[in-house]
UniProtKB/TrEMBL annotation:
This is Yeast cell wall synthesis Kre9/Knh1-like N-terminal domain-containing protein. The keyword Signal applies. Residues 1-19 form the signal peptide. It comes from Calocera viscosa (strain TUFC12733). It holds the Pfam family Kre9_KNH. Residues 26-119 form the Yeast cell wall synthesis Kre9/Knh1-like N-terminal domain.
Length: 248
């Protein structure tokens, strides 16, 4: 007959074999301002498996999570010096307690997640989560977040500007190659816009890896751009994008 000590030892061995990276923060009471430093912490993987970790900012319900942005890739989750990881929280829509991080490792049994936390506006305002409970009935508030479109008042740091000629209602225009600024945006201006385009900001890679991606973008008319998931002063224009630059 197995003794209690033997059973516990076996259980510990099983748990140790299945152990991996364990997220520890942020927690449900943590609030980070958009544009400020945000920290992510975890206990390192003791098995030596999680050596190529991707961390994504996520939102959505428990059984239908949606990525907001990739925070970091190729992170060694076995190295204790990597935690905490600090990055700049982006401006998002909505500012609410609906965000969490997902840790994934190729070949692992399952991703790992933090609890939900709050990203607040730069001045600290926060909206309540859109849904008070999960579709399953679990009392965990949630909502779907996305990166916020910048407004003209935020374009002073942008160093890449494309000026477009006047377009008629049936025109599309392929944009030339543009190098993104370090802030990660390219500003597009239509100077005589009435029904086509007033302005739009295209998010691109802040590390420059997507330089030239703007030539895959075209402009077209739309009756109501908000139906396509955009918000902001977009004067009846839709932005059609490829290669994951902007997903409508």
């Amino acid at each position: 007959m197995l003794t209690l000590t033997t059973v516990l030892a076996v259980l510990l061995l099983i748990l140790s074999a299945r152990a991996g990276l364990t997220p520890t923060g942020p927690g449900p009471t943590d609030v980070f301002l958009a544009g400020s430093q945000c920290s992510i912490s975890w206990l390192p993987d003791p098995t030596g498996t999680w050596t190529n970790v991707t961390i994504q900012l996520m939102s959505g319900q428990n059984l239908a999570m949606t990525p907001v942005i990739t925070v970091v890739q190729d992170l060694d989750g076995t190295d204790p010096t990597q935690s905490p990881y600090n990055w700049t929280c982006p401006e998002v829509q909505p500012y609410s307690a609906i965000y969490f991080y997902e840790f994934s490792q190729p070949g692992s049994d399952s991703p790992a997640w933090t609890t939900r936390f709050t990203i607040a506006s730069p001045n600290g305002t926060v909206d309540p989560p859109e849904y008070p409970t999960q579709p399953s009935g679990d009392a965990t508030p949630w909502g779907t977040g996305q990166l916020a479109l910048s407004t003209p008042s935020n374009t002073t740091s942008m160093n890449s500007t494309l000026t477009l000629p006047e377009l008629d209602g049936n025109s599309t225009l392929a944009l030339p190659t543009a190098t993104p600024s370090q802030s990660g945006f390219v500003k597009v201006v239509q100077p005589t816009a009435t029904t086509v385009l007033t302005w739009v900001v295209l998010p691109v890679s802040s590390n420059g890896s997507d330089t030239g991606a703007a030539d895959k973008v075209a402009l077209a008319l739309a009756s109501d751009v908000r139906e396509l998931g955009w918000s902001g002063p977009l004067a009846g224009a839709a932005l059609l994008a490829a290669a994951g630059l902007c997903i409508l």
